Amino acid sequence: MTIEELIVEGNKLVHKDTSKLILSTVLNMNYLELMLHLNDKVSADVVSKYQKILKNIKNGQPIQYALNNVNFYGRDFYVDDRVLIPRFETEELVYNTNNYINKYFSKKVKILDLGTGSGCIGLTLKSMNDNFDVTLSDLSPYALEVCDINRKNLNLDVTLIESDLFESINSKFDVIISNPPYIGINDKVDKLVIENEPAIALFADNNGLEFYDRILKDCENYLNSRYLIAFEIGALQKDDVLHLIKKYLNDVKVITKSDMSKRDRMIFIFKNIDIIE
Question: What are the two backbone dihedrals, phi and then psi, of residue 96, each rounded to the nearest 5 degrees?
C-alpha cells in the first residue's frame, strides 16, 4: 500500500488530521515529508502497526497511549497506561519554575520531583539545565519503569527513587515540584480519562487535597532553609491549598498563577527569598 492509500483508509476511522499524525509518527516523518511522498509504498510491518493504532484509537484508547508518545515542552516522552498523560498546563508549571530557579538560585540547585509519573517535569528541568541535581520519585514502580525509559531516551543523569512521598527520601532540596493527584473521589471526570489513565495518578482523598496536605505537613524536613515549592493544582483548589500552606508553613511568601485559560492552576511558595515580580 502507498502512503496515500493508508491515509484514505485511516480517514474512514478517525479524523483526517489524526490519521496523518499517526502515519507521520509511525514513519518518523514530519507532515511536509508525508505529503511529498504520498505515492511511496510502505512495508507490511508499517501497514500492520498503523492499522493496529487506528483500531486502538477507534476503540477509545487515547492517541498518546496508542502512539506511546507525547510531546512535552518540545521533547518526546514515551507514555502508556502506567502513567498519566502529560498536559499543557504542566508545561506552564515547568516554565514558571525554571524561571524562578534561574532568578533566585545558583545553577547547582537540588530539585525533587514528587510523584513524577512519566518524568516529564523533572526530566524537562534537567534537560533545560544539566547543572540541576534532579531526583524523581514515585510510589508506583510501574510509573518509574516508564520514567526510566524516558531518562534513557533523553540521556539524562538523574536519580529515581520509589517512595510514598517522603518515605524513602533521605536528602534535602532547594526545590520541591509536584503535580500530585488532585481529583476528588466523587468529582466528575471525562470518560476517556477515567477509563484509560491510572486512578493512582488521578484521585486523592479529602476532596482532592490529600497529597498537598501530606507534602506541606512534612516538606520542611526535606528542604534547605532557603527554598521553593511549586505545585500544580486543580482549578478550584487555590483557596484550600492556601489554607493548608498557612496551617503548616511560617514566614513564607506565596505566588499564585493562572494558566493560559485564566484558571488558577499553579502555586509557588518561597522561603528566605526576596521576591521581585
Answer: -65, -40
Pairing mode, strands 133-138 and 159-162: parallel
Residue 189 amino acid letter:
V
Dmax of the chain from CA atoms? 66
pLDDT digits (tens, 9 = 90+) for 102-123: 999 987 899 999 999 999 999 9
Architecture of domain 84-271: 3-Layer(aba) Sandwich (3.40)
Helices (H), ranges, the chain? 3-11, 16-27, 31-36, 44-58, 63-67, 88-104, 120-128, 141-154, 191-194, 205-208, 210-218, 238-248
Contacts of 238 (CB under 8 A, 6+ apart): 256, 264, 267
Neighbours of 83 (CB within 10 A): 29
The grid cell for 58 is: 477507534
111-159: per-residue pLDDT in tens?
999 999 999 999 999 999 999 999 999 999 999 999 999 999 999 999 9
Is the overall model pTM greater than 0.85, yes or no?
yes
In angstroms, the Cα distances linking 256 to 89, 106, 113, 190 are: 14, 23, 19, 26
What are the residue ranges spanned by the domains of the chain?
3-59, 84-271
